[in-house]
Design a protein that fits this description.
The protein is built from seven helices and three strands, in the order H-E-H-E-H-E-H-H-H-H. The chain has 133 residues and is mainly alpha-helical. Strands 1-2-3 form a three-stranded parallel beta sheet, sandwiched between helices. It is globular and about 55 Å long. The two termini are 22 Å apart.
Length: 133
Amino acid sequence: GRYRAMLNSHDVGIALQDTPHPGLVSLDMAAAGLTTITSTYATKCAADLAAISANIVAVEPDPKVLADAIACAVNSAGDLQRRSAAAEFDWPRSAAQALSSDLITRMLTMIDGTDAPAGCVTDAIASPWGEAR
């Protein structure tokens, strides 16, 4: 849609977040091929974010450091091959891919102490794009 088109029309993204989680905007930008500048915070470290995607550049929230990171990102924006390769995330893209039938059954058993009938939960899980898995 429009959000994806907007992301695809840019080369560099900036998503500064004073939070312990990476944030969906940073991940969206990186997956769209933008070199994405974000801030580190407590347990959110640069190495962990770079392991998700080389498109994510996490730096300390200091104006000079941020300015340097932005300048580097702008200077490397022309490396489309690197940006495209780093946009490929190796992780589940739907709930059904992330949550195996066995895991769901075990979770339901822990929640209510009973076994769920085979297939009753995973058959109903669909991805955000409407594809049943």
